[in-house]
Amino acid sequence: MNRRIDPTLRRAAPGVFAAAFGLALSLILSPADADAAAAKAAKPARATSQGAIPRGPDGKPDFSGIWEATSSADYDLEPHAARKDAPPGAGVIDGDSIPYLPAALEQKRKNFAARESEDPRVKGWTLGVPRGIYYPEPFQVFQRERDLTLVHQFGHSVRTIHKNGTPHPGGDRNQFWLGDSRARWDGDTLVVDVADFNDETWLDRAGNFHSEALHVVERWRYLDANTIEYRATLEDPQVYSRPWSLAVLLHRHREKNFQLIEDYRFTTDYDQYYPPRPPAPSTPAAAPQGQP
Length: 292
Prior knowledge:
16% of the residues lie in helices and 24% in strands. The chain has a domain at 44-51 and 69-78 and 88-165 and 172-255. The protein has a 9-stranded mixed barrel. A two-stranded antiparallel ribbon has the order 1-2. The N and C termini lie far apart (66 Å). By secondary structure, it is α+β, with helices and mostly antiparallel strands. Residues 1-21 have low confidence and may be disordered. Strand 4 (139-143) and strand 5 (147-152) form a beta hairpin. It has helices at residues 14-28, 31-42, 102-113, 115-118, 131-134; strands at residues 47-48, 51-54, 65-69, 139-143, 147-152, 158-162, 180-186, 189-195, 215-224, 227-235, 244-252.
């Protein structure tokens, strides 16, 4: 399961969130696992004779590392010309357009018109799935045999992809900003089934969106030791007339000393309130004349 950080709490000082994130990761991983995961992320797993890609002790591909997409997908998933707030892009979806239902297409147009203020990104909210993967900021993968933990630089959202065969929790009360992710292996491809979403996230800056009925199937596959092909198929009977797919490439960061740096730039208006300051000392009232 995944929890969104309350926007009002994001405004805390960077040091506070660094400590909070460290605590959160320690709850996900045991101390030994956390140390091992950090070391593995800093130094990618060694490629084996089974193929020139990193593999874990179980022989499966190891996606540990820091990754980032370099496409213009977050500006608009569909093919688009240049506009004042976006460079041109050829699009990353299969086909020319997202197959919206008529009413949903009208809502998408409204979103586009109000994108400067209504995009959840500009409110500092969690980006969601799949947007967090192709958003133009890095994210880090910590992989163990039973799960993967994804940490995003933007807002430090943390997502767990379970690989232990457990099902989605389901139910109307289980709706998450990042959905609920359950994975299996198909050869060297990691297939991730994501469900149980809320409807608070967008798919890009152009207002493409979904409802709570969104269902995403991701496919993670190495093209080489430093490149992942990421594909996602989305279906949502309340918004789309049929399932549709997108694909982007993820590139491993290999720069010296590269690391995630927490990004809460869209909440800087609240910096004046954090960390909380003690009230100013009051000045004692002067005693009336004639009294000691």
